[in-house]
């Protein structure tokens, strides 16, 4: 794998995609593949100069373990080589033991390696090997830049802590009196409500005043709107290195992509330096909206006829979080039919989705709802309730569609291919019609994160002419007939 990293703080490298999860034991599956995540962060010390941290998170259940007394332990070989052009400027090779895993309960574990490097561009060759497995090593190559922190007022990369405890004995995780376990994932689900943030300010002694101001700000990357309730200011005394440790409460940040920025100002409000950290938030908590006080936009009112208000309100479920979906369903199922309130709900939801071009965004979505209604509805469901309709509304139109109505032994099916879904590339969905009537295509399998994953999908597609396979391989007896090419089409 090759990666080009221009912004270290935003990089998340998955060294290997690990798909299966199971309880590990000493006689466990020796074919498990090692999985690890890596991010690179830059810091500075007046004594050692600029340096980078390679921060690793090893996926605990992806290792193979051996007995150690009554417990288990894993071991990894790590080889790191950092080049600048044709010259190797830093390297390390070592063995890393996992923590002792008690009662076959395994957790992820972490490691950090420091490298003092002069400003410039570097290429890193990384190799990881599970020493208790016969699998080959996992290799990765990526590049990164080291900036000049020595002479200018600057802010280090921002770390979000998985946990932070007071340092008892200096170690690789120690910073400013705390042992900071870095959080490498940049996705924050509903249950995570705080971002413990750590960063360092360098060379603030260059400021004429004795103090300086740091502004914290959160911006929605999809709408470019700043969330004013998360803007705050803090005053700091200048020094060669100023460590900053603070916490951001994200309980009320709605689902979306955001950039957290830290910006230094002097007393004259001059902006001196800034650093950002991007993250994704999935928040399924109900958003409290006072629908009764919302002023209905006449354009919204005219865009929805009285006999279609509930239909269009329910059509928002495919793009709603769980909290919003519950609110919509509660209103749709009510016996009373307050059409004005339902119009206000539609407007309020779209105001949350697109605060700037609310009406235009709604009208584009309305056209998509009409499209899926015409093409995917059946005798039992409107288009937006079908699997194809839901996927179309949630992810947009596929870049390519493969349709097979007739096959030697396969049920009718469709494969939808997406070049890009958010940050994910090359994702596919396969739908099939097990009833052979009513245009009732159901999602059979997808490689998209969060969607249905069915390892036995080939058997389901061929079940008219094949018996079920073994526990290890449900597709074992799928016939290899002429014209049965769904597997090849899906995997190509």
Strand-residue proportion: 35-45%
Head-to-tail CA distance between termini: 19 Å
Q: How many separate helices?
A: 8
Averaged pLDDT, please? 84
Using only C-alpha atoms, the radius of gyration works out to 27 Å
Number of strands: 26
Helices, strands, pairings?
Blueprint: E1 2-4, E2 13-14, E3 36-45, E4 49-58, E5 66-68, E6 71-73, E7 75-84, E8 87-97, E9 109-116, E10 120-130, E11 138-146, E12 154-155, E13 159-166, E14 174-175, E15 178-182, E16 187-188, E17 194-202, E18 211-220, E19 232-237, E20 241-249, E21 256-265, E22 271-281, H1 298-303, H2 309-314, H3 322-332, H4 339-353, H5 358-376, H6 387-395, E23 400-404, E24 413-421, E25 424-432, E26 442-446, H7 457-461, H8 486-491
Parallel strand pairs: 1-11, 16-22
Antiparallel strand pairs: 2-3, 3-4, 4-9, 5-6, 7-8, 7-10, 10-11, 12-17, 13-15, 13-17, 14-15, 17-20, 18-19, 18-21, 21-22, 23-24, 24-25, 25-26
Folded structure, characterized:
By secondary structure, the protein is α+β, with helices and mostly antiparallel strands. It folds into four domains: 1-148, Immunoglobulins (Immunoglobulin-like); 151-283, Immunoglobulin-like (Sandwich); 291-381, no CATH class; 398-491, no CATH class. It is 16% helix and 37% strand. It contains eight helices and 26 strands. It has helices at 298-303, 309-314, 322-332, 339-353, 358-376, 387-395, 457-461, 486-491, and strands spanning 2-4, 13-14, 36-45, 49-58, 66-68, 71-73, 75-84, 87-97, 109-116, 120-130, 138-146, 154-155, 159-166, 174-175, 178-182, 187-188, 194-202, 211-220, 232-237, 241-249, 256-265, 271-281, 400-404, 413-421, 424-432, 442-446. Strands 12, 13, 14, 15, 17 and 20 form a six-stranded antiparallel β-sheet that branches. Strands 1-11-10-7-8 form a five-stranded mixed β-sheet, with no helix packed on it. The radius of gyration is 27 Å and the shape is globular.
């Amino acid at each position: 794998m090759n990666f080009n990293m221009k912004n270290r703080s935003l990089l998340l490298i998955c060294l290997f995609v690990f798909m299966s999860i199971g309880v590990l034991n000493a006689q466990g599956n020796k074919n498990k593949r090692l999985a690890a995540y890596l991010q690179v962060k830059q810091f500075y010390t007046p004594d050692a100069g600029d340096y980078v941290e390679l921060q690793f998170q090893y996926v605990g259940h992806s290792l193979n373990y051996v007995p150690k007394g009554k417990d288990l332990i894993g071991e990894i070989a790590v080889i790191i080589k950092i080049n600048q052009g044709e010259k190797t400027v830093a390297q390390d090779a070592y063995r890393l033991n996992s923590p002792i895993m008690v009662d076959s309960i395994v957790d992820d574990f972490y490691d950090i390696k420091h490298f003092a490097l002069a400003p410039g561009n570097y290429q890193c060759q990384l190799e990881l090997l599970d020493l208790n497995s016969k699998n080959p090593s996992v290799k990765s190559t990526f590049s990164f830049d080291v900036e000049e922190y020595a002479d200018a007022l600057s802010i280090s990369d921002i770390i979000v802590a998985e946990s932070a405890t007071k340092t008892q004995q200096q170690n690789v995780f120690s910073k400013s009196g705390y042992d900071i376990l870095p959080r490498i994932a940049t996705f924050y689900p509903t249950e995570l409500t705080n971002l413990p943030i750590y960063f360092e300010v360098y060379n603030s002694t260059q400021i004429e005043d004795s103090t300086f101001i740091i502004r914290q700000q959160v911006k929605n990357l999809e709408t470019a709107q700043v969330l004013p309730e998360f803007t705050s200011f803090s005053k700091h005394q200048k020094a060669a290195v100023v460590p900053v440790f603070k916490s951001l409460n994200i309980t009320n940040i709605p689902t979306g992509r955001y950039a957290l920025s830290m910006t230094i100002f002097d007393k004259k409000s001059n902006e001196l330096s800034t650093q950002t950290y991007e993250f994704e938030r999935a928040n399924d908590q109900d958003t409290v909206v006072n629908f009764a006080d919302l002023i209905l936009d006449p354009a919204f009112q005219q865009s929805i006829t009285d006999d279609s208000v509930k239909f269009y309100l329910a059509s928002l479920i495919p793009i709603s979080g769980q909290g919003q979906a519950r609110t919509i369903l509660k209103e749709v199922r009510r016996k009373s039919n307050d059409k004005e309130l339902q119009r206000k709900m539609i407007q309020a939801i779209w105001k949350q989705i697109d605060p700037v071009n609310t009406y235009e965004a709604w009208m584009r979505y309305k056209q998509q709802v009409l499209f899926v209604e015409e093409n995917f509805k059946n005798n039992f469901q409107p288009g937006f309730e079908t699997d194809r309709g839901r996927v179309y509304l949630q992810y947009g139109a596929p870049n390519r569609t493969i349709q097979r109505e007739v096959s030697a032994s396969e049920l009718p099916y469709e494969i939808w291919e997406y070049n890009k879904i958010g940050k994910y590339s090359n994702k596919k969905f396969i739908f099939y019609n097990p009833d052979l009537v009513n245009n009732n295509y159901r999602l059979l399998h997808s490689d998209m994160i969060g969607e249905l994953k069915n390892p036995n999908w080939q058997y389901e597609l061929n079940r008219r002419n094949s018996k079920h396979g073994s526990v290890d391989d449900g597709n074992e007896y799928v016939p290899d007939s002429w014209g049965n090419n769904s597997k090849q089409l899906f995997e190509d």
